[in-house]
Write a structure and sequence with these properties.
single chain; 409 residues; seven-stranded parallel β-sheet; alpha/beta
């Protein structure tokens, strides 16, 4: 009966996960990952509380088991609410701007110390009554810390937060392994924890972020100054589909920089067809991918692969950044922050010091966007008003379909 019950629950969970995943498109992947992370955290908290309620009446609590229970509760609760807030930011239910209480870091530190108090209190008096109160306080404080810490992080740093929460979910699982004396759980948790930590470090390097500053609720860019951001003045020039097609046909070297806007518009298939057509006409067309393009690592790589774009023409930033100066046309499709020259030109910009793709070095830049608005980080992009830039406004998919139709004529 026990195994049958577990099997039934597992089947129900697998069915629910499959149903959710089957309805998730490429643009919803980041928030879906965040949502599933919250479930991992909630499971860790539930398991920790259940194990405590099992061991305490039997008098079997030990310092090791208490430490593991509190660690799983603390990490699991932070992962739960932190992931839910990240989900809200990515899904648009919450604003991307940082929100926090005064002296946020002190508040978070004091509430995190509640977990240490809970562990010490339970070790001194490992009874059911004392443990319930201590564990309840630990859970409530940790749930608040997870939400508060993530709310205080700006939208530009949410991709880093996702990988950091991935690591936290792994360490929560690792703590469960110690708690349940399960080598498998401990090993898997450690693998997830370390891989998430390494991915977080790679993300921070790609964005020139300091992970400590990110988690403490600042933009954390090492090069950011303390003054007001520059105001870039100038007027944008605009182009149309017909002129864009003529320029693309006349070019020999073309670099396409896709961004989250391409994913939102579901324009990857039209873009793949355009690339195929131009390359067949002798144009050396390649794609340039920023390490944090989209809302999570690798999202644009997956998007292009799904559309059948050959891997050998999809290059990472460090592989292609020096080639822009020899490029006839750079076609930016739905990207903004990752091609923002303010990161280099303005030491007071909120993205100052962040490595970006040097699209403005191309002879001609065509930027496809819905509007002239700022990107997810909220920083104005001076590339839009540079002399060699033409704006092609509109829905990316409709515009790409129109370009493809003109190429076929």
């Amino acid at each position: 009966a026990g195994l049958a019950g577990v099997g039934g629950i597992a089947a129900a969970g697998a069915g629910s996960g499959l149903a959710i995943a089957s309805r998730v498109g490429p643009t919803e992947l980041p928030q879906t990952v965040a949502g599933f992370h919250s479930l991992v955290g909630a499971a860790a908290v539930a398991t920790a509380v259940g194990e405590f309620l099992h061991l305490a009446p039997l008098g079997l609590l030990t310092p090791v088991s208490i430490g593991a229970i509190v660690a799983a509760t603390y990490l699991g609760a932070i992962t739960t609410t932190g992931s839910l807030v990240a989900f809200g930011k990515l899904n648009g239910a919450l604003g991307s701007a940082p929100v926090s209480l005064p002296k946020r870091n002190l508040v978070n530190a004091l509430l995190s110390a509640v977990s240490l108090w809970a562990a010490a209190r339970m070790m001194r008096s490992p009874t059911l009554a004392v443990g319930r109160a201590a564990l309840a306080a630990c859970t409530a404080a940790s749930l608040f810390v997870g939400a508060h810490a993530t709310l205080a992080i700006g939208g530009a740093d949410v991709p880093v937060v996702i990988t950091c929460l991935n690591s936290a979910s792994g360490w929560a699982l690792c703590a469960e392994g110690f708690m349940l004396s399960s080598t498998l759980l401990t090993t898997v948790g450690a693998l997830i924890g370390f891989s998430g930590a390494l991915l977080t470090q790679d993300m921070c390097v790609a964005m020139n972020r300091d992970i400590v500053s990110v988690l403490l609720g600042g933009y954390g860019t090492s090069a950011t100054g303390g003054g007001e951001a520059m105001v870039f003045e100038g007027e944008a020039t605009f182009t149309d589909v017909e002129a864009t097609v003529e320029n693309l046909k006349a070019a020999k070297e073309v670099i396409v920089v896709p961004g989250y806007g391409l994913a939102v518009a579901n324009g990857q298939y039209a873009m793949a067809e355009i690339a195929k057509e131009l390359r067949a006409q002798g144009v050396n067309l390649r794609f340039a991918i920023h390490p944090v393009a989209g809302r999570m690592p690798g999202q644009l790589n997956v998007l292009l692969a799904e559309a059948g774009v050959p891997y050998d023409i999809v290059l990472e930033m460090e592989e292609i950044n020096d080639d822009f100066k020899d490029t006839d046309i750079c076609l930016v499709v739905g990207a903004n922050d990752t091609v923002n020259s303010a990161a280099i030109e303005d030491p007071n910009s909120i993205i100052a010091g962040m490595p970006v793709l040097h699209v403005w070095e191309a002879k001609n830049v065509i930027v496809m966007k819905r509007s002239m608005g700022a990107g997810y980080a909220g920083a104005d992009n001076p590339v839009f008003i540079k002399d060699n830039t033409d704006m092609l406004l509109g829905d990316a998919k409709k515009t790409l379909d129109a370009i493809k139709a003109k190429l076929d004529d």
